[in-house]
C-alpha cells in the first residue's frame, strides 16, 4: 500500500472519528449541551487527534527504521568473501542489489526463472527492461535482491496493518473515554499548545542546522587544509577537483576574497550612505506629505527588486557604460582611446550594490530620525536655529547610535550579497587597490565551488562550507552588535 | 547661532543698521542642505527609472517572435526514402527534417537546389528547432508524408534580431551574423506576408534551449510555482503558529528569549548560507534529489519563515488588548480567545506579510544556485521531485549566455518576473487598504 493511500486512510479515520466523537457527545448531552464540560466539537477533535497522531508517529518511526533494518539483514546475508571487502565495495554491491531488485519487479515469471538459472544473462535482461547494471551480477546478488524485495514487501504490509490498527485503536480508546464530565477541551488545547511550541522551535532548529551542517563540513575541510593556511593564506588557487583525490592540491587563502568583499562593500557603502541618509533626512524633515507619500514607496521599490535584476543591470548596462565612458575620458585627455575601467570591476559591482542598499539605509535611518523626540527639535528651532542647523547639531547627534546600528546592518547585507557580485565583480582572486579592476568575493567563490559536479570528499567542494561559516560568523557578529546598539538607543528615549 | 544679536541701544532716532549676523550665509547653507536631500532622492529615483528603462527597452521585443509561414512539402524522398516506416518507426524520428524545411523555403525564395552556398544561407534563416517541430507533426500523423502543408516555423535567432532592427546593418557584412542576401530575402518574405512577428507564446511554454529563439521560461515558471506552493503551505502555518506562541502564550524566560534572538538573526543571515544549509542537510544528508523543486521549496521556506514570523507578530500585537479582555471575560479559554477573536482580526496583516515574504522568495536566486537548480531542463517537471529550475535562476543562466538574442530573452524573463512581483505587492497593498482596521 502506498504511503499516500495510507495517509488518506488515516485522514478518513480521523474525519470519521471527529464525526462520531461529536455525535456521541451530543447523544450523551441528550439535548442539554450545558451538561457537557466542553462543546461537542472538542470531543470530536479529541477522537480525531487520538486516531491520527499515534498512527502518524508509528508510520514515521517505521519509515525511518525499516530500511535500516532491511539493509543490515541483506548485508548480513552476504557471502563471507564479500563481507571481507572494504565498506565502499560492500556499498557498491548493495546499490547493485537495489537496482536488480527494482528490475526483478518488472519481470514476468518465466523471465525470472530463466534469469535465476543463468545469472550471466541478468545484465542484458534487465537492461532491456530499462535497468542498466554497472557489471555482471554475482549469483548471490540475485538471491539477495529477491530477499530484499520480499522484505520490502513484507515491511510495507506490516506498516499498513500497524498504522491502520494504531489509528483504529486510538479512535476506539478515545471514543470510549467520552463522558459528560470529560475535559475534552483542555486535552485538545494541550495538544495545540505543544504544536505551537514545536513550530516556534523550528527557528532554533534552523540555526542549529546551519551551524552544525557548515561546521561539520568545514571541519572535514580543515582536516585536509590547515586552518591557518585558510585564514591567513594570501593566494586563492583551488585548482580543479580531481575525482577521488583527497589530498589538497590547491591553495585556499581567504585573504584575497575577504579583501574583495570588503572593498566592494566599502564602495557600495560610499554610494548608499550619503544618498540614503540625505534621502531619509529630506523625507523626515522637509518633504511635504504628498512628496513623502510618493517618493518613499518609490524608493522602497528598489528594495523589492530581486538582486539578480541588479546583477543583470550591472552586467549589461552599468559595466559597459563605465568602460565606454572611461575610454572617452582617456581619449580626451591622452588621445589614446583605451578604456581604463573594465566592464567587470570593483566599481561596477560597488555602485550597483550601493543603489540596492539605498532603501535599506534610508528606511532604517528614517525610522530612527523620526524617533528623536519632538521636544529636541522644537527647542532648537525655538532658539532660532535653521532646520539644517537643527538637523546637523541636534538631531543627528541624538540619532547617531541608531544610525550607526542601521549602517552596520546594511554593511552585513553588502557582505552577504551574492548575485550582483557574481555577475559584475569578476572571478579573479587578487589583492590590489585599483577599483577599476575586477576582484572577487567570498560569496562568488562559494557559488563557483558548488556549481557543477560535487564531491563531498574533495577540499575544492568543502572549502565552500569553510567560506560559508566565515561569512555567517561575520554577518552574525555585525548584526548582533547592531541590534545591541539599536536596542540601547531605543531605551534612551523611552 | 554663533552670533547673538544684542538689542539696539535705546533712544537713537536713526534706524539702526542691521548687523550682519550671518543670516545670508546660514540661509544659503539651509538651501544647500535641502538641495542635497532632494538630489539624494532624485539620484535614487533616477537609478530606479534607469534600471526599469534599461530592462524594458531591451526586453519588450522578447514578447514578439519572428515566424515564417511557408508551404512545406513533406517529401517522402527525404523523410523515408525506402518506405520502411511501417517496420522501423525510428526512421521517422531520425529523418532529416531541417532539409525539408530548407528546401521549402528555398523554393519560396527561388533558390536553385544546386546552389549550395544559397541553400546554406537559406538554412541559416530557419531555427534549428524546426527539426523537433516537424518531427512531432509527422510522428503524430504519418499520413502527411508526401503532402504539402502550410506550417509556421520559427525564424533563426539572428534573423529575428535583424527583423526587429537590433542588428546594425551598416557594419561590414563579414562582421555580422546576417548576410545582405539574407536581409534581402527577409524583406522579400516580409513584403509577401510570409514572414511576420507573432506574439511569443513559446517564451511562456518552452523549456531551456541552446537556441535563443526556442528558449522559454515555461519550465522555470512551473518550478517557481511548485516552490511557491511549498513555501506557502509550509511557512504560513508554521510561521503563524510560532508567532502565536511567542506573542500570546510564551512566558518570559531564557528559552523564549533564545527563540526571539534567533529569529531576528535568521532574518539577517545572507541567503546564500541557506543554500549551503540545503545542500548539506537536504541533499547530502537526507538524500533528496538535486535540482528538485522540493528542496528549493524547503530552503526558501526556511528563508521566508523569519519574515513571516516578524510580520505576524506585528499584526498580532496591533490587535488591542480590549478584544482579548472581552473574550476572556465572557469565559473563553486563552486558546479560544486567540483562534476565535485575535487571529481573524490579525489575518489581513498576516496575509500581507506572507505575500511580501513570498515575493521575496520568488526573486531569490543565490541559495537555488547551490542546490543544483542551475540545470539545463527542457522538460516540464511533473512533480516537485523532478529536476526543475526557477525563474530567477533561468535569468541568471541566460545572463551568462553570449548571444545577442539571449539579452532580449533575459530582459523578457526579468519583465515577467517583475510583473509577478508587482502583482503580488499590489495585492498585498490592496489587502491592507481593504481590510486594515485602525483601532
UniProtKB/TrEMBL annotation, chain A:
> Pfam family of this protein, just one?
DUF3708
What the entry lists under InterPro entries is as follows: MetI-like, MetI-like_sf, Phosphate_PstC, PstC_N
Q: How does it sit in the membrane?
A: Multi-pass membrane protein
- Where is this protein found? Cell inner membrane; Cell membrane
Which parts pass through the membrane? Answer: 43-65, 158-178, 190-211, 218-236, 256-281, 301-321, 341-361, 394-415, 462-486
Concerning PROSITE patterns, the annotation shows: ABC_TM1
Q: Does the keyword Membrane apply?
A: yes
Q: Which UniProt keywords apply?
A: Cell inner membrane, Cell membrane, Membrane, Phosphate transport, Transmembrane, Transmembrane helix, Transport
- Which top-level group of life is the source organism from? Bacteria
Q: Which residues form the ABC transmembrane type-1 domain?
A: 258-482
Question: Is Transferase tagged as a keyword?
Answer: no
Fetch the PANTHER family from UniProt: PHOSPHATE TRANSPORT SYSTEM PERMEASE, PHOSPHATE TRANSPORT SYSTEM PERMEASE PROTEIN
Family statement drawn from the similarity comment of this UniProt entry: Belongs to the binding-protein-dependent transport system permease family. CysTW subfamily.
Q: What does this protein do?
A: Part of the binding-protein-dependent transport system for phosphate; probably responsible for the translocation of the substrate across the membrane.
Name the record gives this protein: Phosphate transport system permease protein
Task: Please report the organism this UniProt entry assigns to the protein.
Answer: Shinella oryzae
Biological classification of the source: Bacteria, Pseudomonadati, Pseudomonadota, Alphaproteobacteria, Hyphomicrobiales
